[in-house]
Protein backbone atom coordinates (compact mmCIF):
# COMPACT_ATOMS: atom_id res chain seq x y z
CA UNK A 1 0.00 0.00 0.00
CA UNK A 2 2.78 2.43 0.82
CA UNK A 3 4.00 2.45 -2.81
CA UNK A 4 0.63 3.07 -4.45
CA UNK A 5 1.60 6.71 -4.97
CA UNK A 6 4.51 5.74 -7.27
CA UNK A 7 2.48 4.95 -10.44
CA UNK A 8 0.56 8.19 -9.98
CA UNK A 9 3.79 10.17 -9.67
CA UNK A 10 5.34 8.50 -12.73
CA UNK A 11 2.17 9.07 -14.76
CA UNK A 12 2.20 12.76 -13.84
CA UNK A 13 5.87 13.14 -14.82
CA UNK A 14 5.21 11.37 -18.14
CA UNK A 15 2.27 13.65 -18.90
CA UNK A 16 4.11 16.80 -17.90
CA UNK A 17 7.02 15.87 -20.16
CA UNK A 18 5.04 14.96 -23.26
CA UNK A 19 7.24 14.43 -26.32
CA UNK A 20 5.63 16.59 -29.11
CA UNK A 21 7.84 19.54 -28.19
CA UNK A 22 10.90 17.49 -29.16
CA UNK A 23 9.83 17.76 -32.82
CA UNK A 24 10.05 21.57 -32.78
CA UNK A 25 13.57 22.74 -33.62
CA UNK A 26 12.71 26.39 -32.99
CA UNK A 27 9.66 28.67 -32.90
CA UNK A 28 9.62 32.32 -31.91
CA UNK A 29 6.93 34.99 -32.02
CA UNK A 30 9.41 37.55 -33.40
CA UNK A 31 11.02 37.84 -36.84
CA UNK A 32 14.53 36.57 -36.19
CA UNK A 33 16.75 35.19 -33.45
CA UNK A 34 20.51 34.97 -33.23
CA UNK A 35 22.97 33.94 -30.53
CA UNK A 36 25.55 36.38 -29.19
CA UNK A 37 28.72 34.49 -28.35
CA UNK A 38 32.11 35.14 -26.76
CA UNK A 39 34.86 32.99 -25.29
CA UNK A 40 33.59 31.43 -22.03
CA UNK A 41 30.19 33.15 -22.32
CA UNK A 42 28.23 30.04 -21.39
CA UNK A 43 25.74 28.56 -18.94
CA UNK A 44 24.19 31.93 -18.09
CA UNK A 45 21.45 31.31 -15.52
CA UNK A 46 20.19 34.86 -15.01
CA UNK A 47 20.14 38.27 -16.66
CA UNK A 48 18.90 41.74 -15.68
CA UNK A 49 18.64 45.12 -17.35
CA UNK A 50 20.86 47.81 -15.86
CA UNK A 51 19.15 51.14 -16.50
CA UNK A 52 20.57 54.64 -16.31
CA UNK A 53 17.86 57.25 -15.66
CA UNK A 54 17.88 61.03 -15.70
CA UNK A 55 16.58 63.45 -13.04
CA UNK A 56 13.02 63.07 -14.43
CA UNK A 57 13.24 59.26 -14.23
CA UNK A 58 13.48 58.92 -18.01
CA UNK A 59 15.56 56.09 -19.44
CA UNK A 60 18.90 57.31 -20.83
CA UNK A 61 20.77 54.06 -21.34
CA UNK A 62 20.30 50.34 -20.80
CA UNK A 63 22.77 47.48 -20.57
CA UNK A 64 22.32 43.77 -19.99
CA UNK A 65 24.10 42.11 -17.05
CA UNK A 66 24.57 38.33 -17.23
CA UNK A 67 25.37 35.74 -14.56
CA UNK A 68 27.30 32.83 -16.12
CA UNK A 69 29.13 29.75 -14.87
CA UNK A 70 30.79 27.52 -17.53
CA UNK A 71 31.77 25.08 -14.76
CA UNK A 72 28.14 24.35 -13.83
CA UNK A 73 28.36 20.73 -15.01
CA UNK A 74 30.98 20.12 -12.33
CA UNK A 75 29.49 22.36 -9.62
CA UNK A 76 25.75 22.87 -9.22
CA UNK A 77 24.42 23.05 -5.66
CA UNK A 78 20.79 22.95 -6.87
CA UNK A 79 20.79 19.95 -9.23
CA UNK A 80 24.28 18.55 -8.76
CA UNK A 81 26.92 17.39 -9.24
CA UNK A 82 29.31 18.74 -6.61
CA UNK A 83 32.53 17.47 -8.17
CA UNK A 84 34.84 20.43 -8.58
CA UNK A 85 34.27 24.13 -7.72
CA UNK A 86 37.00 25.19 -10.14
CA UNK A 87 37.01 27.18 -12.37
CA UNK A 88 34.93 30.13 -11.22
CA UNK A 89 32.03 31.74 -13.03
CA UNK A 90 31.77 35.36 -14.19
CA UNK A 91 29.52 38.36 -14.77
CA UNK A 92 29.17 39.86 -18.25
CA UNK A 93 27.78 43.08 -19.68
CA UNK A 94 26.29 43.75 -23.12
CA UNK A 95 25.71 47.30 -24.37
CA UNK A 96 24.22 48.85 -27.47
CA UNK A 97 27.05 47.42 -29.61
CA UNK A 98 25.86 43.87 -28.77
CA UNK A 99 29.37 42.91 -27.70
CA UNK A 100 29.63 40.76 -24.57
CA UNK A 101 32.37 41.90 -22.19
CA UNK A 102 33.47 40.13 -19.03
CA UNK A 103 33.20 42.17 -15.83
CA UNK A 104 36.30 42.32 -13.64
CA UNK A 105 35.60 41.80 -9.92
CA UNK A 106 37.77 44.43 -8.24
CA UNK A 107 38.95 43.76 -4.65
CA UNK A 108 37.30 40.34 -4.67
CA UNK A 109 38.84 38.24 -1.87
CA UNK A 110 41.58 35.86 -2.98
CA UNK A 111 40.52 32.24 -2.57
CA UNK A 112 36.82 33.15 -2.35
CA UNK A 113 34.78 31.02 -4.77
CA UNK A 114 32.52 32.67 -7.32
CA UNK A 115 29.67 30.64 -8.81
CA UNK A 116 26.98 33.20 -9.66
CA UNK A 117 23.31 32.30 -9.98
CA UNK A 118 20.54 34.87 -9.39
CA UNK A 119 21.38 38.57 -9.72
CA UNK A 120 19.72 41.97 -9.51
CA UNK A 121 20.93 45.55 -9.83
CA UNK A 122 19.45 48.92 -8.86
CA UNK A 123 19.18 51.55 -11.57
CA UNK A 124 21.57 54.49 -11.78
CA UNK A 125 20.27 58.05 -11.21
CA UNK A 126 21.93 61.48 -10.96
CA UNK A 127 21.47 61.32 -7.19
CA UNK A 128 22.91 57.79 -6.94
CA UNK A 129 25.10 57.22 -9.96
CA UNK A 130 26.78 54.09 -8.64
CA UNK A 131 24.48 51.04 -8.67
CA UNK A 132 24.35 48.29 -6.08
CA UNK A 133 24.54 44.79 -7.55
CA UNK A 134 23.72 41.66 -5.54
CA UNK A 135 24.74 38.17 -6.70
CA UNK A 136 23.86 34.73 -5.30
CA UNK A 137 27.16 32.83 -5.01
CA UNK A 138 27.16 29.02 -4.71
CA UNK A 139 30.60 28.57 -3.13
CA UNK A 140 32.17 25.28 -2.15
CA UNK A 141 31.40 25.55 1.57
CA UNK A 142 28.16 27.52 1.62
CA UNK A 143 25.96 29.74 -0.50
CA UNK A 144 26.32 33.47 0.07
CA UNK A 145 25.23 36.74 -1.52
CA UNK A 146 27.96 39.01 -2.86
CA UNK A 147 27.51 42.78 -2.89
CA UNK A 148 29.19 44.81 -5.66
CA UNK A 149 28.92 48.35 -7.02
CA UNK A 150 28.97 49.34 -10.70
CA UNK A 151 29.42 52.77 -12.29
CA UNK A 152 27.94 53.53 -15.74
CA UNK A 153 31.22 55.11 -16.88
CA UNK A 154 33.13 51.94 -15.98
CA UNK A 155 30.69 49.09 -16.72
CA UNK A 156 33.30 46.33 -16.92
CA UNK A 157 34.62 46.81 -13.37
CA UNK A 158 32.49 45.76 -10.40
CA UNK A 159 33.86 46.74 -7.00
CA UNK A 160 33.32 44.10 -4.33
CA UNK A 161 31.80 45.50 -1.12
CA UNK A 162 30.89 42.59 1.16
CA UNK A 163 29.76 38.99 1.49
CA UNK A 164 26.33 38.43 3.05
CA UNK A 165 26.11 35.10 4.85
CA UNK A 166 23.50 33.78 7.27
CA UNK A 167 21.98 30.59 8.64
CA UNK A 168 18.69 31.97 7.31
CA UNK A 169 20.00 31.67 3.74
CA UNK A 170 19.84 27.91 3.23
CA UNK A 171 19.47 27.74 -0.54
CA UNK A 172 19.41 31.23 -2.13
CA UNK A 173 18.44 31.20 -5.78
CA UNK A 174 17.02 34.44 -7.24
CA UNK A 175 17.02 38.08 -6.13
CA UNK A 176 14.51 40.94 -6.58
CA UNK A 177 15.58 44.32 -5.22
CA UNK A 178 13.12 46.51 -3.32
CA UNK A 179 15.46 49.47 -2.75
CA UNK A 180 19.15 50.22 -3.33
CA UNK A 181 19.96 48.34 -0.11
CA UNK A 182 17.23 45.69 0.26
CA UNK A 183 15.91 42.73 -1.67
CA UNK A 184 13.80 39.59 -1.70
CA UNK A 185 15.67 36.32 -2.20
CA UNK A 186 14.07 32.97 -2.99
CA UNK A 187 15.39 29.80 -1.31
CA UNK A 188 14.61 26.81 -3.51
CA UNK A 189 14.97 23.89 -1.09
CA UNK A 190 15.06 23.08 2.59
CA UNK A 191 16.92 19.84 1.80
CA UNK A 192 19.94 20.62 -0.37
CA UNK A 193 22.65 18.85 -2.32
CA UNK A 194 25.10 19.93 0.36
CA UNK A 195 23.74 17.28 2.74
CA UNK A 196 26.18 14.38 3.17
CA UNK A 197 26.46 11.33 0.92
CA UNK A 198 23.33 9.59 -0.36
CA UNK A 199 21.11 11.93 1.65
CA UNK A 200 22.23 14.90 -0.44
CA UNK A 201 21.69 12.93 -3.65
CA UNK A 202 18.22 11.70 -2.74
CA UNK A 203 16.27 14.03 -0.46
CA UNK A 204 16.46 17.20 -2.63
CA UNK A 205 15.17 15.18 -5.59
CA UNK A 206 12.33 13.78 -3.48
CA UNK A 207 11.50 17.32 -2.31
CA UNK A 208 11.37 18.50 -5.95
CA UNK A 209 9.38 15.60 -7.44
CA UNK A 210 6.82 15.39 -4.65
CA UNK A 211 6.38 19.16 -4.51
CA UNK A 212 7.21 19.30 -0.82
CA UNK A 213 6.84 22.88 0.49
CA UNK A 214 10.45 23.40 1.57
CA UNK A 215 11.13 26.60 -0.36
CA UNK A 216 10.69 30.08 1.06
CA UNK A 217 11.44 33.78 0.53
CA UNK A 218 13.61 36.04 2.68
CA UNK A 219 13.63 39.80 2.68
CA UNK A 220 17.10 41.16 3.39
CA UNK A 221 17.79 44.77 4.43
CA UNK A 222 21.18 46.42 4.90
CA UNK A 223 21.39 49.28 7.38
CA UNK A 224 24.32 51.43 8.44
CA UNK A 225 24.54 51.76 12.22
CA UNK A 226 25.88 54.89 13.96
CA UNK A 227 29.23 53.16 14.44
CA UNK A 228 29.40 52.61 10.64
CA UNK A 229 28.99 48.85 10.90
CA UNK A 230 26.50 47.19 8.59
CA UNK A 231 23.47 45.60 10.18
CA UNK A 232 21.64 42.99 8.13
CA UNK A 233 17.96 42.31 8.88
CA UNK A 234 16.34 39.09 7.69
CA UNK A 235 12.61 38.38 7.57
CA UNK A 236 10.52 35.50 6.18
CA UNK A 237 7.54 36.98 4.31
CA UNK A 238 6.77 33.72 2.45
CA UNK A 239 7.10 30.09 3.56
CA UNK A 240 6.12 26.72 2.11
CA UNK A 241 6.70 27.21 -1.64
CA UNK A 242 7.71 23.98 -3.44
CA UNK A 243 11.00 24.64 -5.28
CA UNK A 244 10.79 28.44 -5.00
CA UNK A 245 12.82 29.71 -7.94
CA UNK A 246 12.46 32.97 -9.88
CA UNK A 247 11.30 36.15 -8.15
CA UNK A 248 10.45 39.63 -9.44
CA UNK A 249 8.73 42.85 -8.31
CA UNK A 250 6.36 44.46 -10.85
CA UNK A 251 7.23 47.88 -12.34
CA UNK A 252 4.67 49.65 -10.14
CA UNK A 253 5.87 47.74 -7.07
CA UNK A 254 2.40 46.36 -6.31
CA UNK A 255 2.92 42.70 -7.26
CA UNK A 256 5.53 40.10 -6.39
CA UNK A 257 5.91 37.04 -8.61
CA UNK A 258 7.54 33.83 -7.32
CA UNK A 259 7.86 30.75 -9.52
CA UNK A 260 7.39 27.22 -8.19
CA UNK A 261 9.35 24.85 -10.41
CA UNK A 262 7.78 21.75 -8.85
CA UNK A 263 4.18 22.93 -9.30
CA UNK A 264 4.45 24.46 -12.81
CA UNK A 265 3.02 27.79 -11.72
CA UNK A 266 3.95 31.31 -10.72
CA UNK A 267 2.50 32.61 -7.47
CA UNK A 268 1.43 36.26 -7.34
CA UNK A 269 1.25 38.38 -4.21
CA UNK A 270 -0.12 41.86 -3.61
CA UNK A 271 2.62 43.97 -2.10
CA UNK A 272 2.72 47.12 0.00
CA UNK A 273 5.90 49.03 -0.81
CA UNK A 274 5.98 50.48 2.70
CA UNK A 275 6.04 47.01 4.26
CA UNK A 276 7.98 44.36 2.34
CA UNK A 277 6.70 41.60 4.63
CA UNK A 278 3.01 42.37 4.03
CA UNK A 279 2.35 40.05 1.09
CA UNK A 280 -1.17 38.86 0.26
CA UNK A 281 -1.91 36.01 -2.21
CA UNK A 282 -3.22 37.36 -5.53
CA UNK A 283 -3.59 34.15 -7.54
CA UNK A 284 -1.40 31.90 -9.66
CA UNK A 285 -0.38 31.76 -13.31
CA UNK A 286 -0.29 28.20 -14.64
CA UNK A 287 2.49 27.44 -17.12
CA UNK A 288 3.25 24.39 -19.30
CA UNK A 289 6.72 23.73 -17.89
CA UNK A 290 8.86 23.92 -14.77
CA UNK A 291 9.31 27.69 -14.49
CA UNK A 292 12.75 29.06 -13.76
CA UNK A 293 13.27 32.83 -13.64
CA UNK A 294 10.57 35.48 -14.08
CA UNK A 295 10.82 39.12 -15.19
CA UNK A 296 8.26 41.88 -15.69
CA UNK A 297 8.33 44.09 -18.76
CA UNK A 298 7.39 47.77 -18.74
CA UNK A 299 3.77 47.04 -19.77
CA UNK A 300 3.14 44.91 -16.69
CA UNK A 301 3.37 41.57 -18.50
CA UNK A 302 5.39 38.76 -16.95
CA UNK A 303 8.07 36.90 -18.93
CA UNK A 304 8.46 33.31 -17.70
CA UNK A 305 11.25 31.02 -18.91
CA UNK A 306 11.54 27.38 -18.02
CA UNK A 307 12.09 23.74 -18.71
CA UNK A 308 9.38 21.68 -20.46
CA UNK A 309 11.29 18.40 -20.02
CA UNK A 310 12.82 18.29 -16.56
CA UNK A 311 14.23 14.74 -16.96
CA UNK A 312 16.06 15.94 -20.09
CA UNK A 313 17.44 18.90 -18.13
CA UNK A 314 18.59 16.57 -15.34
CA UNK A 315 20.29 14.32 -17.89
CA UNK A 316 21.93 17.36 -19.48
CA UNK A 317 23.30 18.46 -16.10
CA UNK A 318 25.02 15.08 -15.77
CA UNK A 319 26.27 14.96 -19.38
CA UNK A 320 29.84 16.19 -19.84
CA UNK A 321 29.27 16.75 -23.57
CA UNK A 322 28.95 20.36 -24.71
CA UNK A 323 26.65 19.25 -27.57
CA UNK A 324 23.86 17.77 -25.42
CA UNK A 325 20.69 19.87 -25.16
CA UNK A 326 17.39 20.22 -23.30
CA UNK A 327 14.19 21.90 -24.54
CA UNK A 328 13.37 25.57 -23.98
CA UNK A 329 10.06 27.39 -23.53
CA UNK A 330 9.32 31.05 -22.82
CA UNK A 331 5.83 32.49 -22.33
CA UNK A 332 4.53 36.01 -21.77
CA UNK A 333 1.63 36.38 -19.32
CA UNK A 334 -0.28 39.61 -19.95
CA UNK A 335 -2.97 40.94 -17.60
CA UNK A 336 -6.42 41.01 -19.19
CA UNK A 337 -9.96 41.85 -18.15
CA UNK A 338 -11.30 38.86 -20.08
CA UNK A 339 -12.93 36.30 -17.80
CA UNK A 340 -11.55 32.87 -18.65
CA UNK A 341 -12.81 29.58 -17.31
CA UNK A 342 -10.30 27.38 -15.55
CA UNK A 343 -11.71 24.52 -17.65
CA UNK A 344 -11.05 26.32 -20.95
CA UNK A 345 -7.85 24.75 -22.27
CA UNK A 346 -8.23 25.71 -25.96
CA UNK A 347 -8.81 29.47 -25.87
CA UNK A 348 -5.24 30.70 -25.61
CA UNK A 349 -1.77 30.40 -27.16
CA UNK A 350 -3.17 29.37 -30.53
CA UNK A 351 -0.16 30.45 -32.63
CA UNK A 352 2.48 28.21 -31.07
CA UNK A 353 3.25 24.86 -32.77
CA UNK A 354 2.72 23.15 -29.41
CA UNK A 355 0.23 25.25 -27.46
CA UNK A 356 0.58 25.96 -23.77
CA UNK A 357 -3.08 24.93 -23.53
CA UNK A 358 -2.00 21.32 -24.13
CA UNK A 359 -0.44 21.28 -20.68
CA UNK A 360 -1.90 24.13 -18.65
CA UNK A 361 -5.37 25.50 -18.01
CA UNK A 362 -6.23 29.09 -18.78
CA UNK A 363 -5.55 31.49 -15.93
CA UNK A 364 -8.39 33.96 -15.25
CA UNK A 365 -7.14 37.52 -15.67
CA UNK A 366 -3.99 36.53 -17.57
CA UNK A 367 -3.35 35.71 -21.22
CA UNK A 368 -0.44 33.28 -21.64
CA UNK A 369 1.29 33.26 -25.04
CA UNK A 370 4.39 31.44 -26.25
CA UNK A 371 7.27 33.75 -27.17
CA UNK A 372 9.90 31.08 -27.79
CA UNK A 373 9.92 27.31 -28.07
CA UNK A 374 12.67 24.85 -29.00
CA UNK A 375 13.58 21.20 -28.59
CA UNK A 376 17.02 22.43 -27.59
CA UNK A 377 18.68 22.52 -30.99
CA UNK A 378 17.66 26.15 -31.53
CA UNK A 379 18.56 27.24 -28.00
CA UNK A 380 18.88 24.97 -25.00
CA UNK A 381 17.65 24.99 -21.38
CA UNK A 382 16.02 28.45 -21.22
CA UNK A 383 16.24 29.95 -17.73
CA UNK A 384 15.60 33.71 -18.08
CA UNK A 385 13.73 35.91 -20.57
CA UNK A 386 13.72 39.72 -20.70
CA UNK A 387 11.81 42.00 -23.07
CA UNK A 388 13.17 45.46 -23.90
CA UNK A 389 10.14 47.74 -24.34
CA UNK A 390 12.21 50.30 -26.32
CA UNK A 391 12.66 48.01 -29.31
CA UNK A 392 10.65 44.87 -28.54
CA UNK A 393 13.76 42.69 -28.43
CA UNK A 394 13.64 39.49 -26.42
CA UNK A 395 16.71 38.24 -24.56
CA UNK A 396 16.94 34.60 -23.42
CA UNK A 397 19.61 32.88 -21.35
CA UNK A 398 20.16 29.14 -21.01
CA UNK A 399 21.23 27.26 -17.90
CA UNK A 400 23.42 24.99 -20.05
CA UNK A 401 23.60 26.98 -23.29
CA UNK A 402 26.42 28.68 -25.15
CA UNK A 403 25.99 32.45 -25.42
CA UNK A 404 22.78 34.44 -25.04
CA UNK A 405 19.86 34.50 -27.50
CA UNK A 406 18.48 37.77 -28.88
CA UNK A 407 15.22 37.81 -30.84
CA UNK A 408 14.14 40.92 -32.77
CA UNK A 409 10.72 41.98 -34.11
Automatic annotation (TrEMBL):
InterPro entries: 6-blade_b-propeller_TolB-like, Serum_paraoxonase/arylesterase. Residues 1-18 form the signal peptide. Gene3D superfamilies: TolB, C-terminal domain. Keywords: Signal. PANTHER family: PARAOXONASE, SERUM PARAOXONASE_ARYLESTERASE 2. This is Calcium-dependent phosphotriesterase. It comes from Rickenella mellea. The lineage of its organism: Eukaryota, Fungi, Dikarya, Basidiomycota, Agaricomycotina.
Amino acid sequence: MRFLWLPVLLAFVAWRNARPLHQIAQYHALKKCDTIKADNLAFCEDAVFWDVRDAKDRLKDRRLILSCDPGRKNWNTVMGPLRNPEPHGALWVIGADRRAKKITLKDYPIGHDFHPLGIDIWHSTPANVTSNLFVVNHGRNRTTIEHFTLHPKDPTNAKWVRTISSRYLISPNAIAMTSPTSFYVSNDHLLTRRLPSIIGHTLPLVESLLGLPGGYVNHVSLHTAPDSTTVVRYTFPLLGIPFANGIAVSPNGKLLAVSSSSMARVHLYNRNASNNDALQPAGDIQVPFAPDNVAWDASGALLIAGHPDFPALTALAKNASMTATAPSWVVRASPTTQKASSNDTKAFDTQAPFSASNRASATPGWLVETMYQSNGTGFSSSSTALRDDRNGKLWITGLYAEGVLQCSP
